[in-house]
Amino acid sequence: MKKSDSDSKISFSDSLKRLEEIVRKLESPDLDLEEGIKLLDEGITLHKICKKQLTAAQTKITELLKETGE
Predict the structure, then answer these.
(1) Whole-prediction pTM value?
(2) Where are the alpha helices (DSSP H) in the chain?
């Protein structure tokens, strides 16, 4: 996965599924160092994307609740 603006367009659900795949692969005893580093890099990128999406969702929910007086 390349780090670009298009990465932020990936859905939260798809990001989470890919992160789960990456974790399974990283836990494999047969994983070589280079592949592990690539997977870790991709996982960190996906983590950042998910965190950004969750923060945006939290902000939107807070705004909606303020509008409704909750």
Answers:
(1) 0.78
(2) 12-26, 33-68
Q: pLDDT per residue over 8-18, tens digit each?
A: 589 999 999 99
Q: Are 3 and 45 in contact (CB under 8 A)?
A: yes
Map tokens 């005893």 to a residue.
29
Assign residue 69 a region (left: φ > 0; alpha: ψ between -120 and 50; beta: otherwise): left
Q: What is the dihedral of CA 5, 6, 8, 13, to 10 degrees?
A: -170
pLDDT band with cut points at 50, 70 and 90 for residue 69: confident
Burial call 26-53: b when 16+ CB within 10 Å, e when fewer: eeeeeeeeeeeeebeebbebbeebbeeb
Give the Cβ contact number of residue 1 at 10 Å. Answer: 17
